[in-house]
From TrEMBL:
Protein name: D-malate dehydrogenase (decarboxylating)
Cofactor: Mn(2+); Mg(2+)
Pfam family of the protein (one): Iso_dh
Family statement: Belongs to the isocitrate and isopropylmalate dehydrogenases family.
Length: 359
C-alpha cells in the first residue's frame, strides 16, 4: 500500500523538522514492509511569498485533495506579518479541508523533566489529550476595522459559535475520553464574562454528556484552568476547549511536559472526505532556525499520529513502534538543548532511525 503525502515544510525550523520526519517515516515503512510513502513537496512558505507574492496557488486545495494526508512543518517569518502568513496557508487548509478537530496529546517522555515538582517524582501524573475546536470560534476570521488610522479606529474580531460546530467537537471529545482508561472529560470556557457563544458551549456540553453516562465530566473557566494545570495536573485527563483557549492551553501543556519542541498535533477531518494534516504545535522558531538544533520529537510524534490515522486501526502497532523508538532515545539521553541535552537535530533523528530498526 502506498500513502500519498503532501509535505509542506514551510519556514524556519519547519523545513528542518519536516526533513527529519520524512527520514524517520521512510525508515518506519522500510522496517514494516507493508506500506510506503510517496511525497509531493510543496514549497509554500513566507520565503516563497516574498519572492513571488503568493503562498498557495489558486488550485492549491485541489492539489492537496489528491493526497491521503498532509504533513506540515511551520509557517511564519519575521519579514511577513503573522496574520498574513497564518491566513494564507495553515488556517485556510484547516477550514477548507474540514479539519474541525485538532488533537493535542501531552505527556512527559522518559529521560526528560517537567518544570512541575509534582511531576518530577511521578511523571505519569501528567497525561492529557487536549481536543481543540479547529474550525470556528475566535478564529472564524470575521470582523473588520473602521476609521482606520484615526484616533477613532474601531476593530472587531467576532467569535462565531454554531450549534453544529459545538456538537461535533463535543461528541469527538466524549468519544476520545471514553476510549481512555480514566474516562474523564473537562470542558473549558469563559462563560461568566462572555454571555452568548460560551454559554452555548456550556449548554451543548451538558446535552451531549447525557449520551455518555460512563464518562465523568466537569467544567472549568479558562483562567482557573491554567492554575489547575499547574497545581493539580493529575486531576485532568481529556480536555475540550475552543480554538483560542485550546491554542493557549496546549502551549502551556507542552511547556509543563518539558518543552514545546515535543508537542504533536493532528488536524482531523473525521468524515475522511479530505486529507487530515499533521504538524508539531510549535512555530518556525526564527531564533534557532538554520542552526540544526531544533527538537524533531514533536515532528516525529506527529508522524506517528499520521501513521495511526492512515492505518485506521491496522497500523497502530507501527505507530507504537515509532513512539517506543522516540522514548528509548530520550531515555538514553539523546536530546536537544530545549530538553537540557546536547545533541542536534541530526543526531536525534539518526538515533530514532536506529531504534526503529531494533524495537
Ligand atoms: P515558536 O513556537 O516558533 O517558538 C517559541 C520558542 O520555542 C522559541 O524560543 C523557539 O526557539 C522554541 N522552540 C519552538 N520549537 C522548538 C523546537 N522544535 N525545538 C527547540 N525549540 C523550539 O513560536 P513564535 O516564536 O511565537 O513564532 C515564530 C513564528 O512561527 C511566527 O511567525 C508565528 O506566527 C509562527 N507560528 C506558526 C505556527 C504554525 O505554523 N502552526 C504555530 C505557532 C507559531
Ligand atoms: Mg499555537
Amino acid at each position: 500500500q502506498t500513502f500519498k503525502i503532501a509535505a509542506i515544510p514551510g519556514d524556519g525550523i519547519g523545513t528542518e523538522i519536516t526533513q527529519a520526519a520524512i527520514q524517520v517515516l521512510d525508515k518506519l515503512a522500510e522496517v514494516d514492509g507493508s506500506f510506503k510513502f510517496e511525497y509531493t513537496n510543496f514549497d509554500w512558505s513566507s520565503k516563497a511569498y516574498k519572492e513571488r507574492g503568493w503562498y498557495m496557488p489558486p488550485d492549491g486545495m485541489a492539489q492537496l485533495q489528491k493526497h491521503d494526508a498532509i504533513y506540515f512543518g511551520a509557517v511564519g517569518w519575521p519579514d511577513v506579518p503573522d496574520h498574513i502568513s497564518l491566513w494564507s496557508l495553515i488556517l485556510p487548509i484547516r477550514k477548507d479541508m474540514n479539519q474541525y478537530v485538532n488533537v493535542r496529546p501531552t505527556r512527559i517522555l522518559p529521560g526528560t523533566r517537567s518544570p512541575l515538582s509534582s511531576c518530577q517524582s511521578d511523571p505519569s501524573t501528567l497525561d492529557w489529550i487536549i481536543i481543540r475546536e479547529n474550525s470556528e470560534g475566535e478564529y472564524a476570521g470575521q470582523g473588520g476595522t473602521t476609521h482606520e488610522n484615526s484616533p477613532h479606529t474601531i476593530a472587531t474580531e467576532l467569535a462565531i459559535f454554531s450549534r453544529v460546530g459545538i456538537e461535533r467537537i463535543m461528541r469527538f471529545a466524549f468519544e476520545t475520553a471514553k476510549a481512555r482508561p480514566r474516562k474523564k472529560l473537562t470542558m473549558v470556557t469563559k462563560s461568566n464574562a462572555q454571555r452568548h457563544g460560551m454559554v452555548l458551549w456550556d449548554k451543548v456540553f451538558y446535552e451531549v454528556a447525557e449520551e455518555y453516562p460512563d464518562v465523568e465530566h466537569d467544567k472549568m473557566l479558562v483562567d482557573a484552568m491554567t492554575v489547575r494545570m499547574v497545581n493539580n495536573p493529575e486531576s485532568l485527563d481529556t480536555i475540550v476547549a475552543t480554538n483560542l483557549h485550546a491554542d493557549i492551553l496546549s502551549d502551556l501543556a507542552a511547556a509543563l511536559s518539558g518543552s514545546i519542541g515535543i508537542a504533536p498535533s493532528s488536524n482531523l477531518d473525521p468524515t475522511r472526505k479530505h486529507p487530515s494534516m499533521f504538524e508539531p504545535i510549535h512555530g518556525s522558531a526564527p531564533d534557532i532556525a538554520g542552526k540544526g538544533v531544533a527538537n524533531p520529537v514533536g515532528a516525529f510524534w506527529s508522524a506517528a499520529e499520521m501513521v495511526r490515522w492512515l492505518g485506521q486501526g491496522k497500523l497502530d502497532g507501527t505507530a507504537d513502534k515509532l513512539m517506543q523508538a522516540i522514548e528509548n532515545v530520550t531515555k538514553a539521553g539523546v536530546k536537544t538543548r530545549d530538553l537540557a541535552g546536547n545533541s542536534n537535530t541530526k543526531e536525534v533523528t539518526e538515533a530514532v532511525c536506529r531504534e526503529i530498526g531494533i524495537v
